[in-house]
Design brief:
The protein has two domains: 175 residues, 3-Layer(aba) Sandwich (Rossmann fold); 191 residues, N-(1-d-carboxylethyl)-l-norvaline Dehydrogenase, domain 2, CATH 1.10.1040. Strands 3-2-1-4-5-6-7-8 form an eight-stranded mixed sheet, sandwiched between helices. It is an alpha/beta fold. The two termini are 33 Å apart. It has 17 helices and eight strands. Bound molecules: nicotinamide-adenine-dinucleotide.
């Protein structure tokens, strides 16, 4: 597929505006479409501000910035997409609305064009099924903020033509992205493997072992994570984070490993959404005093190791079920959510047997299915093998 194909991005919100920026920077003519003209105005002025800042910082000359901005055209309605070889959909996360859009698109697009969805939680098969040309439909899952986070999960459905998969992997590389190949299963790689970072941390809080500040401190200090789980949930928004957890739980046929928490559900019900509402696990008023952690090293290490073991188990299980290769699972977590290390490499470093021991202790204590060791992690531990 040529590097300079015409690209349409549909939905000019958080993700669509970012994806349009990436494609325009890579030299493509981009049509950014939204059904709401004020969303388009916001995207346009945000692009102008971003490029003014990038010029100030010396990342681009003024001529280059103007050229990139000139690559983006803003439109209401689908009429202008008919020359595009790639359409990336980033509209509202609703299956009926996405299906309707995809079936409209295939009527006006050239027969060899690719229609991609940036969905976080819907199956690509369910979106593709609305099209006659379902072999041209694929998932391209970018991470927020899309221009800054390099990962793109490339997700073929059962119906996708393999040539399109190769084309999209190659194209994402030309956009400066790091593509990983993921199976069309709930949460793909990142949103599945990351669940324990939030879920196990909340569980530790619910058991009364530590408060939010102490758990955040433990994961940053002993794990090297840039943000603690509660800081991160406040940044993402508790409503968004809770919805992802609930969706993954339901889509996995209510597997106890992904069970959402009452703590976060109540936060959402109380509209304690995090930074965007001024209060979540922490308070964000300018004069608010920040809660101090209990800096007890033994407790801190215990907290880190428990969350680490559950993360490693989840990454191992994704490998066991062939969701992605071991290399891609590790790349996904370091490039999509900035983890300090790939989880499987981290398992090798601290030892798969250590993770197994921690989880089996929890299993004995609570008797819950949540603490189920992945067969591949158990095997690595028993045979004293490593993932890499
Ligand atoms: N926000 C994230 O962190 C994130 C990360 C990865 C993937 N995603 C996925 O990306 C998609 C978009 O998410 P977002 O956060 O950018 O949403 P958003 O609400 O910021 O933007 C969605 C935009 O789509 C427009 N829209 C809705 N229906 C439309 C239609 N039929 N035709 C044209 N425009 C329409 C809306 O007016 C809005 O401007 C969702 O599928 C979401 O799951 C979001």
């Amino acid at each position: 597929m040529s590097e300079k194909i015409g690209v349409a991005v549909i939905g000019s919100g958080t993700m669509g505006a970012g994806i349009a920026q990436i494609a325009a920077t890579a030299g493509h003519k981009v049509i950014l479409i939204d059904s709401n003209d004020s969303a388009l105005d916001i995207a346009k002025s945000s692009h102008e501000k971003i490029f003014a800042r990038l010029v100030e910082k010396g990342k681009f000359s003024e001529t280059q910035a103007n050229e990139i901005l000139g690559n983006i055209n803003y439109h209401i309605g689908l009429n202008e997409v008919c020359d595009c070889s790639l359409v990336i959909e980033a509209i509202v996360e609703n299956i009926e609305i996405k299906q309707k859009l995809f079936s409209e698109l295939e009527l006006i697009l050239p027969k060899n064009s690719v229609i991609a969805s940036n969905t976080s939680s819907l199956s690509i098969a369910s979106i593709a099924a609305s099209c006659d040309f379902s072999d041209r439909v694929i998932g391209l899952h970018f991470f927020n903020p899309a221009p800054l986070l390099p990962l793109v999960e490339v997700v073929p459905s059962l119906l996708t033509n393999p040539i399109i998969v190769d084309d999209m992997v190659a194209l994402m590389k030309t956009w400066g992205k790091i593509p990983v190949l993921a199976k069309d299963t709930p949460g793909f790689i990142v949103n599945r493997v990351a669940r324990p970072f939030y879920g196990e941390s909340i569980r530790i809080y619910e058991e009364g072992l530590a408060d939010f500040a102490t758990i955040d401190w433990a994961l940053k200090t002993f794990g090297g994570f840039r943000m603690g789980p509660f800081e991160l949930m406040d940044l993402i928004g508790n409503d968004i984070n809770y919805t992802v957890t609930e969706t993954v739980f339901k889509e996995f046929y209510y597997d106890a490993r992904y069970k959402p928490s009452f703590t976060q559900k109540r936060m959402v019900e109380a509209k304690l959404l995090g930074r965007k509402s001024g209060k979540g696990y922490y308070t964000y008023a300018a004069d608010a005093e920040r809660e101090m952690p209990v800096e007890n090293e033994e407790l801190g290490r215990q907290i880190f190791e428990r969350v680490w073991a559950m993360l490693v188990n989840e990454a191992a299980d994704a490998l066991f079920w062939n969701i992605a290769s071991k290399e891609d699972i590790d790349l996904a977590m370091t490039k999509g959510v900035n983890y300090p290390k790939g989880l499987l490499a981290w398992a090798d470093e601290l030892g798969p047997d250590k993770a197994v021991e921690i989880i089996e202790k929890l299993r004995n204590k609570f008797g819950e299915e949540r603490y189920r060791v992945s067969p591949i992690l158990k095997q690595k531990s028993q045979l004293q093998e490593r993932f890499f």
